[in-house]
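ARCHIVE CARD
SHELF: 3
SLOT: left
DATA:
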Amino acid sequence: MFNNIGVSGLILILAIALIVFGPSKLPQLGRAFGDTLREFRNSTRNIMDESERDHLIESEDKKRL
């Protein structure tokens, strides 16, 4: 999705964000965005771990039969 955004595109997005939100709000927005990404990554990792654990349990049950 973001593969086609170059350096000039990122600079343009940052300039618009600076104009809209102002310099005092940008660090708070960046921190909130980082926290959201971290939480999403942790949730995804937990879901994958649960899925792998369920798959291992199912394959062990099949081996027993």
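SLOT: right
DATA:
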Amino acid sequence: MSNKQVISTENAPAAIGTYSQAVKAGETVYMSGQIPLDPTTMEVVSEDFRAQATQVFKNLQAVAEAAGGSLTDLVKLNIFMTDLSNFAVLNEVMAEFVNQPYPARAAVEVSALPKGVQVEMDAVLVLK
């Protein structure tokens, strides 16, 4: 018997492929990549980077809450951006959602992301 539990919420964009929004294994939650889609319309929220980054954090927050946690439980955050010159804005937005102690983090520039968005993030939480 597996202690693997699929996490799903209507407050974040629905999974549109062969994946789950998140999977909880023990007290660890592995969150799939989130892009800046409005969970109600499934449309990209804006062309503006700050608005996109904000929506991604809102989506991650919704999945974290569905798993019984919050963004304070983040231990690892992976960030994919199509332009690393947006890094300062990303840090400003992240500071609105995540407090110290900050999670471990990687940020990489990629050539393209789904639906032409500018940012995608996935994360790992450890619940208390």
